[in-house]
Specification:
The chain is mostly helical. The chain folds into three domains: 230 residues, Clc chloride channel; 209 residues, Clc chloride channel; 155 residues, CBS-domain (Roll), CATH 3.10.580. It is built from 29 helices and twelve strands.
Length: 760
């Protein structure tokens, strides 16, 4: 090394940061990324690869591999997400049936698979075969009677408790982040927030296993929301294999957006709906390139699931249905009523669930997550078993509610009184009077509806994987089926009324109760999540019926209007705010007439802003400033007197730079001068080696003037994804506004607690 005097004279000072060192450009846990910087870094990387590709064949091949890496990642995500979804579906099917009995010929067969393979199954008793035995038949050789019923009841509860206890224990011990739906956190992560471990390998493994356990336990939850989390974990894993994504948090989020689309694709068998869900509901930044890649990932995921064929019906979902009757204009009125019901249910659910979750966070209840899961599971199992509509899995319930009553249906819901003289094609059965089975089913459905509404409020948010799509759809499907049967019977008995006269003649197949169930399901799901476009597309992909888009649209829009009248937040946004995540929602409007000077720090009476000077602070001064404050970065000014802004330095990069300089550069000591200029400052001959940190300085930090309206500032933060913005007047630094300051100001303006925003 040359001495300091020689270096000062030559100006040829070594900048050890000319070569990047580990962890530079990374972020700490629970902090927000800088979208502009990530975009700039990716542009530089791409420019470098393009210029190098002209140098040799090998560099050209490397540039091609880099260009194709995105599509390779999408292919891998689709394959793994589809495979995991298929395995989860098969395992849930088997374990749900395990609560009631076991297949003697092969214990790994579900009830349906067991009776498929039997040669002794009859059409009328297709669910009964000697190979499948209920626990009472196996243990005490009795299938009927009080003792058999009590034994089956007891074992049903014990299996449910066993599954739930195992699930909550695995989550608590191995992967605390595997609980919940995952969509609120995915939305926050996609907006630029860092939650380390949330998309890790352990979370992926534990969430997949526990998802099977909790759905099989019979709790009022679904696997569809958590499948989005599972798919995003797959996306995070594969993106870590490619430096293009692993070293750039902005690019990684493009992969995660596509992974979310693949998750919905396999959850509902709706690839296009998945892409629209990612665009409408979870993604913050969604360029056109991500749209194409999301489409490809969703396609591969759906194709993989179709290859596994978990339901044995060559469909991607359990509740695929086809209707043969058109809908009529007069039916729009009950469809809109179902939309109103969906909006009211959504509002009720969000308010009650958030109140319960807040109570869980602020009282001793939150200290006993295992006990809470066990109690809710016990209550669910005890109440669910006597009612055939709550005993079965929620997906099977929705499937039955969606089904049209054909000539071959054996469900209670299809117990109509047939006309012995009827000679019609199988698919076109006329409306008939309801039999005793239908009336029994109506009572059971009404009780099941009340039970589902109440128990779902307490179930969603527990420390286990829990989706909300399926319970919401079940509530709407039950309400819709009852309305459908009511309209059908009204049309049958009063076909001479003016509203029925034009389209419902005697002997015609006028009303399809299954369609009402489908519309009700869409309305309730829309009321809870506030989805519209993606919801309608998911529902028509589920059912394969393009003809029913208008009823679905009417119900979805009505439910959103009604729910929005009571509050703009959907369930996921409400949970984001409950957890205090720094999520700046694109849908939120800011209409207050405040200025940047009202929000910036420091405010009047506060200590002055902590800043770095360009060439007059020592290493010890910088380290002391870092130690005494917890800010994420520091503005760099010419001097403390002039306060002319030069740039902005991130806290993490300052720490890493000084640490690396001490290790790799001789002569850097505590009283070495730190400078951010191109040329070193004039120093006395025997002064210690100075430290140049210009490389880590952001020379173009985003600035606004003190009189910029906050409406504009909020828009800038939203559209550019800023972490912070500096406030100046005529080039002189006045203060700083962070994303947290913006969110707290918005909460204050909306008469909410600004301290609820907890993270940076």
């Amino acid at each position: 090394m040359v001495n300091a005097g020689d270096m000062n004279g030559s100006g040829n000072l070594m900048d050890f940061l000319d070569e990047p060192f580990p962890d530079v450009g990374t972020y700490e846990d629970f902090h927000t990324i800088d979208w502009l910087r990530e975009k700039s870094r990716d542009t530089d990387r791409h420019r470098k690869i393009t210029s190098k590709s002209k140098e040799s064949i090998w560099e050209f091949i490397k540039s091609l591999l880099d260009a194709w890496s995105g599509w390779v990642v999408m292919l891998l995500i689709g394959l793994l997400a589809g495979t995991l979804a298929g395995v989860i579906d098969l395992a849930v099917d088997w374990m749900t049936d395990l609560k009631e009995g076991v297949c003697l010929s092969a214990f790994w067969y579900s009830h349906e698979q067991c009776c498929w393979t039997s040669n002794e199954t009859t059409f009328d008793d297709r669910d009964k075969c000697p190979q499948w035995q209920k626990w009472s038949e196996l243990l005490v050789s009795q299938s009927e009677g009080a003792s058999a019923y009590i034994l089956n009841y007891f074992l049903y509860i014990m299996w449910a408790l066993c599954f739930a206890f195992l699930a909550v224990s695995l989550v608590r011990v191995f992967a605390p982040y595997a609980c919940g739906s995952g969509i609120p956190e995915i939305k926050t992560i996609l907006s630029g927030f860092i939650i380390r471990g949330y998309l890790g390998k352990w979370t992926l493994l534990i969430k997949t296993v526990t998802l099977v356990l909790v759905v099989s336990s019979g709790l009022s939850l679904g696997k569809e929301g958590p499948l989005v989390h599972v798919a995003c974990c797959c996306g995070n894993f594969f993106s870590s294999l490619f430096s293009k994504y692993s070293k750039n948090e902005g690019k990684r989020r493009e992969v995660l957006s596509a992974a979310a689309a693949a998750g919905v694709s396999v959850a509902f068998g709706a690839p296009i709906g998945g892409v629209l869900f990612s665009l409408e509901e979870v993604s913050y930044y969604f360029p056109l390139k991500t749209l194409w890649r999301s489409f490809f990932a969703a396609l591969v995921a759906a194709f993989t699931l179709r290859s596994i064929n978990p339901f044995g019906n060559s469909r991607l979902v359990l509740f695929y249905v086809e209707y043969h009757t058109p809908w009529y204009m007069a039916e729009l009125f009950p469809f809109i009523l179902l939309g109103v019901f969906g909006g009211l249910w959504g509002t009720l659910f969000i308010r009650c669930n958030i109140a319960w979750c807040r109570r869980r966070k602020t009282t001793r209840l939150g200290k006993y997550p295992v006990l809470e899961v066990i109690v809710i599971t016990a209550i669910t199992a005890v109440i669910a078993y006597p009612n055939p509509y709550t005993r079965r899995s929620t997906s099977e319930l929705i499937s039955e509610l969606f089904n049209d009553c054909g000539a071959l249906e054996s469900s209670q819901l299809c117990d109509y009184i047939n006309d012995p003289n009827m000679t019609r094609p199988v698919d076109d059965i006329p409306d008939r009077p309801a039999g005793p089975g239908v009336y029994t089913a109506m009572w059971q459905l009404a009780l099941a509806l009340v039970f589902k509404i109440v128990i779902t409020i307490f179930t969603f948010g527990m420390k286990i994987p829990s989706g909300l799509f399926i319970p919401s759809m079940a509530v709407g499907a039950m309400a819709g089926r009852m309305v459908g049967i009511g309209v059908e019977q009204l049309a049958y008995h009063h076909h001479d009324w003016i509203i029925f006269r034009n389209w419902c003649r005697p002997g015609a197949d006028c009303v399809t109760p299954g369609l009402y169930a489908m519309v009700g399901a869409a309305a309730c799901l829309g009321g809870v999540t506030r989805m519209t476009v993606s919801l309608v597309v998911i529902m028509f992909e589920l059912t394969g019926g393009l003809e029913y888009i208008v009823p679905l649209m009417a119900a979805a829009v009505t439910s959103k209007w009604v729910a929005d009248a009571f509050g703009k937040e959907g369930i996921y946004e409400a949970h984001i705010h409950l957890n205090g995540y720094p999520f700046l929602d694109v849908k939120d409007e800011f209409t207050h007439r405040t200025l940047a000077t009202d929000v910036m720090r420091p405010r009047r009476g506060e200590a002055p802003l902590s800043v770095l000077t360009q060439d007059s602070m020592t290493v010890e001064d910088v380290e002391t400033l870092i130690k005494e404050t917890d800010y994420n970065g520091f503005p760099v000014v010419v001097s403390k007197d002039s306060e002319r802004l030069i740039g902005f330095a991130q806290r993490r990069e300052l720490i890493l730079a000084i640490k690396n300089a001490r290790q790799r550069q001789d002569g850097v000591v505590s009283n070495s001068i730190v400078y951010f200029t191109e040329d070193p400052p004039e120093l006395p001959p025997n002064s210690p080696h100075p430290l140049k940190l210009r490389r880590i300085l952001n020379l173009s930090p985003f600035t606004v003037t003190d009189h910029t309206p906050m409406e504009t500032v909020v828009d800038i933060f939203r559209k550019l994804g800023l972490r912070q913005c500096l406030v100046t007047r005529s080039g002189r630094l006045l203060g700083i506004i962070t994303k947290k300051d913006v969110l707290r100001h918005m909460a204050q303006m909306a008469n909410q607690d600004p301290e609820s925003i907890m993270f940076n």
